[in-house]
Design brief:
This protein is α/β, with parallel strands linked by helices and about 375 residues long. It has helices at about 1-15, 20-50, 50-80, 95-120, 130-155, 160-190, 195-220, 225-240, 275-290, 305-325, 355-370; strands at about 245-255, 260-270, 295-300, 330-335, 340-350, 375-385. The chain folds into three domains: about 1-220, Cation efflux protein transmembrane domain (Alpha-lytic protease prodomain-like); about 225-305, Alpha-Beta Plaits (2-Layer Sandwich), CATH 3.30.70.1350; about 305-385, Alpha-Beta Plaits, CATH 3.30.70. Strands 1-2-3 form a three-stranded mixed β-sheet, covered by helices on one side. The model has no long low-confidence stretch (mean pLDDT about 80).
Length: about 375
């Protein structure tokens, strides 16, 4: 059923310039309608039965309704093309709308926690009816269906916002089941669990809101890309036999589909500018067409024909590999001037590495003096967080 519905949406909008926006708006409308039905149903039975836990569950669905509105607005603005004020597009607005949703969910949770505490202090009986049970059961099935729609659309358009909405929908299933169980227990045994269940739901709402909020804040601050994405980029760079190597890969994300990267490409310093430009263009084209990444390359010429340079280069690589293969050196230059030798290079070190920069430098200095001879080291330590 869900697949057939999404196929119709894709057939209608998939050929457009921005199917992502169309799917996102469809998800927002679907969520708005289904959540409104849940709010009306639960508010009605909650008011008639006097159950604070059902009312809390209804407010949770009301926050989901407002979330759907924000999803609609978020996908609409995120789908706008780049302009003079926003040259990287508007896709990050999806994270902003998600952040507001998270704040609202957290606020609602705190309000109903206070209400539930009052109900625990002054317990009241709720009116049990089969209509209440039927409405709650129908809401469980509707939320399962809703979560499935969000999940499938999220996979199709790679949307963190809809992934969060899917998890929220499926988590709502558990809260509604808890309300259903407490209502049934009170109806059968007379045990007044309403305030406790309402409090548990409120705590859960607060936890979910804070968790979602933190996720969207990380996205806006610039979170580390998935390791799978990093590995794909490294794999493509390593596949170009013409280049000597690469380093300083940096990745910037301005939304799920707006990824920019920069990298330093090492090439033979005997190449002319036309050849270097041609190879760089090929690399950038591969990244754009196969990975959807806008790559900018910086050319680093490497001396491959000077015997002394090559000897020092190999010795340094051997020393660094012996310390730890994860350490990488680049931009290596050996300069002799007025009987003084200076070895310049950058050393890439993972974050929170087991050795300090000073300890690494000391080991390299001792071994270079043995294998190459006396020389000064001029090292730039690069603490790379993409390793």
């Amino acid at each position: 059923m869900i697949k057939g519905m999404l196929d119709k949406v894709e057939k209608k909008y998939g050929g457009g310039k921005d199917p992502r926006t169309s799917f996102g708006i469809f998800a927002g409308v679907m969520g708005l309608v289904s959540n409104l039905l849940l709010v009306i149903g639960k508010f009605s039975i909650g008011f008639l039965s006097g159950s604070v836990s059902i009312m809390a569950d209804a407010i949770n669905n009301l926050s989901d309704t407002i979330s759907s509105v924000l999803t609609l607005v978020g996908f609409y603005i995120a789908g706008k093309p780049a302009d003079r004020e926003h040259p990287y597009g508007h896709e990050r607005f999806e994270y902003i709308s998600g952040m507001f949703v998270s704040l609202m969910i957290t606020f609602v949770g705190f309000q109903f926690l206070l209400t539930s505490i009052d109900r625990i202090r002054q317990p009241q009986s709720i009116s049990f009816s089969w209509v209440t049970l039927i409405v709650l059961l129908l809401s469980v099935f509707l939320k399962i269906w809703q979560g499935g729609v969000y999940r499938d659309i999220a996979k199709k358009i790679d949307s963190d916002t809809l992934v969060a909405a899917s998890k929220d929908s499926l988590n709502d299933v558990y809260t509604t089941i808890a309300v259903l169980v407490s209502t049934a227990i009170e109806g059968i045994t007379g045990l007044r669990l309403d305030g406790y269940i309402g409090g548990a739901i409120a705590v859960y709402i607060i936890y979910s809101g804070i968790q979602l909020l933190w996720g969207f804040i990380n996205e806006l601050m610039g979170i580390r890309p998935d390791q799978e994405e990093i590995d794909k980029m490294k794999e493509f760079l390593s596949s170009f036999d013409e280049i000597v190597g690469y380093h300083d890969l940096l990745i910037h994300q301005y939304g799920p589909n707006k990824i920019f990267a920069s990298v330093h490409i090492e090439v033979d310093d005997r190449w002319d500018l036309n050849k270097a430009h041609q190879v760089i263009d090929q690399i950038e084209e591969v990244f754009k067409n196969r990975l959807g990444v806008e790559l900018v390359c910086h050319v680093d010429p490497v001396n491959l024909h000077d015997e002394q340079q090559q000897f020092v280069y190999l010795q340094l690589k051997k020393i660094i590999t012996a310390i730890d293969p994860i350490l990488k050196a680049h931009d290596i230059r050996f300069v002799s001037h007025n009987e003084e030798n200076v070895l310049y290079f950058d050393l890439v070190v993972p974050s929170k590495y087991k050795m300090t920069d000073e300890d690494i430098l000391k080991v390299i200095q001792e071994n270079i003096n043995k294998s190459v001879g006396s020389c000064l080291l001029n090292v730039t330590f690069d603490h790379n967080y993409l390793l």
